[in-house]
Automatic annotation (TrEMBL):
Record domain DUF5614: where: 14-206
InterPro entries, alphabetized: DUF1308 (IPR010733), DUF5614 (IPR041076)
TM segment ranges: none
Domain of life where this protein originates: Eukaryota
Organism: Pyrocoelia pectoralis
Family annotation (Pfam families): DUF1308 (PF07000), DUF5614 (PF18474)
Protein name: DUF1308 domain-containing protein
Similarity comment text for this entry: Belongs to the UPF0415 family.
Record domain DUF1308: where: 217-395
Amino acid sequence: MMSNNLNDSCDLLSLSQEKIQFGETLLKTLSLHNKIEGIQKLGRKIKQELSFLEKISRDESIKKEHLQCSNLTHFNALIQTLQELQNCQSVNKVFNLNEKKISVDIICDGGLTWVKVVARNPKSLAQISAGDTGYGVRSIIDQAEDYLNCAKQHPCLFQTPKIMFVFFSGISNTLSETLEELGIIVQGNRIEHHVENNYFTDNSDLSTKNVSHIQKINLDVSAMLAYVSSITNGSCTKYKFTTPVLIQQAEWESKRPVKPILDAYFKGKQLYCCETARDSFINIINIVGGPNEKIRGEELLAQLIVLPDNATASDTEKINANDNCFSSVQLSANKILQVGGKIRERSLIIFKFGDRIQAVTITSNDGFVRAAKQQGIYFVVFVHESRALTEQKEMKVVKIV
């Protein structure tokens, strides 16, 4: 047993030395970019990491966890990405977002693009985003929303900076699609993950029953995207998609077209959305949407009444007085949804808006609806199958003759 412990100790020391040499190489590479703002600070962080590794190596107090949790992996990913980007001006630039501080890994394109570098493995990212983690651990979706909100508050040349996430170790197809729907530019190898097999589920049990008398519709961002998507407007059988999620969506769309279902549900009713939903939809479609999807997006927005996020039923044309559907939903001191896991802050704003104006919220966000139910909150909803914007992707795949 002692021999095994000795061998383990020697192996750890050897790995530690390799890490130290690796860090010294990173410092040499970093010296080639001295003119970029924040490089010196990044160099100091790497030196701190090396000092720690050297100390525990000298003291022979090194543990396996020290090497596994080393920040050198992230620093390497950041530096490698830095070398591949053009016109970089800052690294680790800190911005204020309300009471939080957001550190942007790389700023390039003269300030018009913010880049986050993610070195974490795809399986871990997917599990955290699905809520399979400890309380307080923030998912990549949380971080994406922070970046997007922060960029709006810090325009460059009168423009909101674009957000790019670079996944150094790859990203699951499902998670990349979710980020792209938010308006994030995603770079990194797309990896098929077993979680995707359960991505599409039967949502019929989630829709609220007996709501045909309600004349107000609240559109979630996911419903807007589905309504204007190329795949729901005639292209589901025209292209040979390569992404598993889009392949699945095209198959489902050919069997169960979403737009006719939504049109039937909208008939004779007034369509509403909150300002957060409208702004998010515009941001997403401007980045991810194709030319025809953008035209349909403008046509859809022209049909909506847009109200402030904190609007109530009195701000609408009609009031569903004392409707029992909503009496069991209203959030109060005793009914507060905790943000985290499937409960995203943006979605919570949109669903609470629908609740306050007493409208049926149309959505494909089944994860939010299920998570809310688990916390005892039953929103009045109609849940449809998810559809992504596809027109840009259609330009890169084979057209079926």
